[in-house]
Amino acid sequence: MSCESPIGFFDSGVGGLAVRDAVLRILPGEDTVYIADSANCPYGPKPAEFVRRRSLELTRRLVGMGCKMVVVACNTATAAAIDALRAEWPRLPVVGMEPAVKPAAARSKSGVVGVLATKGTFCGRLYRDTCSRYASNVRVIASVADEFVEMVERGEVDGPGAERIARAKLEPLLAAGADRIVLGCTHFLHLAPLLGRIAAGRAELVDPSDAVAGQVRRVLAARGLLAERPGTGAGRVMRA
Ligand code: DGL
Hints:
The chain is an alpha/beta fold. It has two domains: 7-97 and 209-239, 3-Layer(aba) Sandwich (Rossmann fold); 101-206, Rossmann fold (3-Layer(aba) Sandwich). The chain has eleven helices and nine strands. It has helices spanning 17-26, 48-64, 75-88, 101-107, 119-123, 125-134, 146-154, 160-175, 186-189, 192-199, 209-222; strands at residues 7-11, 32-36, 69-72, 94-95, 112-117, 139-144, 180-183, 204-206, 235-239. Strands 4-3-1-2-9 form a five-stranded parallel beta sheet, with helices on both faces. A four-stranded parallel beta sheet has the order 6-5-7-8, with helices on both faces. Helix 3 links the parallel strand 3 and strand 4. Helix 8 packs across helix 10 (192-199). The longest helix is centred in the N-terminal third of the chain and has 17 residues, at 48-64. It is globular. The structure holds D-glutamic acid.
């Protein structure tokens, strides 16, 4: 494993590609390997133990391919497995995702924050701890949006059908006064243009992908693992 080794990513499906793209925007010279566990999508409603087992299996594959870092490009898998992954590979840098409740709470003027995520993410200790640590000053409304995962897997990110489903989820949060909507699942990042249009003038979306990309760069730099090649790295996407 060296600075020229790839960064590995995995998610239940195509959602985490938005995170990989955010990383490549600031680190275009990095090689990447992305595994979409589409056969097991969605993770959100599944038992945490199942998601943990899959996360260990997929990380083992990425490590086997020589990855220098693994990005868990999935909030649900992070909630279920980040501790297990770090325990299994103590020397491997592992970067995870969690709903960006902290910046949303800090920026909210109305004092109401809406969070869209999966059941698995909301049931995790990480989410509960983040809310009690950083969002005790605001009202946080959690909304499970499994329909969004299916839409994105189908490639349906706009159009009348997608808009109807998106409105049904978003309008109750907006009606409750939420002025920040946290996209707490990587699949939802693909719906940001549609959701942003619906929320325009009423709420801002909080997309964590740039912050995660920044964390990837910081961790790689701290370990002396940033790719040194000029130009563009290679990218591979595979189904589990
Ligand atoms: N993209 C995932 C997340 O960030 C999971 C979606 C799912 O499979 O339910 O939570």
